[in-house]
Amino acid sequence: MKQETTFAHAKFSNPFMNASGVHCMTIEELNDLKKSDAGAYITKSSTLEKREGNPSPRYVDLALGSINSMGLPNLGFHYYLDYALEQQKHQETPLFFSIAGMSKEENIEMLKIIQDSAFSGITELNLSCPNVPGKPQMAYDFQATEDLLERVFNFFKKPLGVKLPPYFDLVHFDQMADILNKFPLTYVNSVNSIGNALFIDSEAEAVVIKPKNGFGGLGGQYIKPTALANVRAFYTRLKPEIQIIGTGGIETGQDAFEHLLCGATMLQVGTALHKEGPGIFTRISKELQEIMDEKGYQSIDEFRGKLKSL
Ligand code: RRO
């Protein structure tokens, strides 16, 4: 395989990892990912206290993707931090640590604990959970996002990325990129699910998930063109030190190749991992290799970001 990837000054055997939220709630699931062919893996976004999340059914696989309103269920920040600290004693698959505080203060508090801990890996600050009733997606509030990052980078000195929601307007890409470029971010992860979609079962004349009268985050094939647009828009607007993780609609080697062409360095798989299980990393990386071999590429660096315009 010729998929070695340099990200945040570290080497990864390949660019693939899970998207936070899928197959990463418990230590058992995390260990499945560690043993898989993924190049890295990430914990479920956590809050300081354990949360049950929203009532079920709250995640449904659809023919072309998924809809979810999980509501940030997680086993609590310290459950994942303890796991991360244990993992880093062994030189195994690198682990990213995801947090999603319910308020600015909670995010700051968790980041202070990470800063003061022995954790030496990469932290992902999720600014885009669409599913907690009454809590808007932080990264749709540009001023609040800038204020939070200002406070964070006053004390946080470890590698940090942000998980963003999809944007749909070129002016929003410009405005968000201007904000992000002010900070020493390690990466931007685009995109989280498309928030507050509505999938219905017309035979039953009903919604398919229980929380929020059926409104939930859309993932999978439905969202690949939106994800590619966000990866491309940030790749062409952010300073080169800020790398991109591409997430959204990655199910095959070709989907992966397209995200890489748009400028992604790491690639996260959510909906397709939920459908197929951790064996997907073996298949998808083999499929990407077949495309690279056919095109004569010896490394991902030869084509990353090199999407042509007409
Ligand atoms: O737990 C969730 O409902 C959830 C989160 Br935190 C997120 O970031 N994205 C998503 O689709 N669901």
From TrEMBL:
Gene3D superfamilies: Aldolase class I, Dihydroorotate Dehydrogenase A, chain A, domain 2. Substrate binds at residues 44, 68-72, 126, 192-193. Its cofactor is FMN. It catalyses: (S)-dihydroorotate + fumarate = orotate + succinate; (S)-dihydroorotate + A = orotate + AH2. Pathway: Pyrimidine metabolism; UMP biosynthesis via de novo pathway. Keywords: Cytoplasm, Flavoprotein, FMN, Oxidoreductase, Pyrimidine biosynthesis. HAMAP family: DHO_dh_type1 (MF_00224). Coiled coil: none annotated. It is found in: Cytoplasm. FMN binds at residues 20, 44-45, 126, 163, 191, 220, 248-249, 270-271. InterPro entries: Aldolase_TIM, DHO_dehydrogenase, DHOD_1A, Dihydro_DH_chainA_dom2, Dihydroorotate_DH_1, Dihydroorotate_DH_1_2, Dihydroorotate_DH_cat, Dihydroorotate_DH_CS. Catalyzes the conversion of dihydroorotate to orotate. Belongs to the dihydroorotate dehydrogenase family. Type 1 subfamily. SUPFAM superfamilies: FMN-linked oxidoreductases. Its EC number is 1.3.-.-. Residues 4-292 form the Dihydroorotate dehydrogenase catalytic domain. Homodimer. It holds the Pfam family DHO_dh. PANTHER family: DIHYDROOROTATE DEHYDROGENASE (FUMARATE), DIHYDROOROTATE DEHYDROGENASE (QUINONE), MITOCHONDRIAL-RELATED. Binds 1 FMN per subunit. This is Dihydroorotate dehydrogenase. One of its GO terms (molecular function) is dihydroorotate dehydrogenase (fumarate) activity. The active site is at 129 (nucleophile).
